[in-house]
Amino acid sequence: MSVAHDVQEAIVAALRADAALQALTGGEDRIFDRVPPDRSFPYVVLGRTSAQDWSTDDRAGEEQLVTIRCWSAQTGRAQVLAMADRVTAALAGLAGSVRGATRIVSLEPVSADHGYEPADRAWRAVQRFRALSEPAD
Predict the structure, then answer these.
(1) What is the rounded CA–CA span in Å between residue 132 and residue 65?
(2) Model pTM?
(3) Which of 6, 92, 107, 135 is most buried (most C-beta within 10 Å)?
């Protein structure tokens, strides 16, 4: 398995394990890598990820920028902001964790924005996280 897969698997597991996020979205089956057709809001979806080398002279490493989007069709932004807060809280404990052959050194939020998307008739929050990882050995 790839480092990207291990990190994504850890993120999805952490989000699905968060009871408060489940309450906001309607269950752990509302966390997606790819949204099924005709799925109604609210939900959380993993978006684009980019990776680059983060190795040192004596240790392999990878940096990933991970995008997570929260979607809500409520009339205001309260639900989507609450979902975004829960995403950040759920991922806060991943630093130092091991998934597959990968140890997540750190996972920190780097940016966020939110707004109304008229074409979707929904509120959307976009968060980006920086994950640094190395082999678990």
Answers:
(1) 9
(2) 0.93
(3) 107
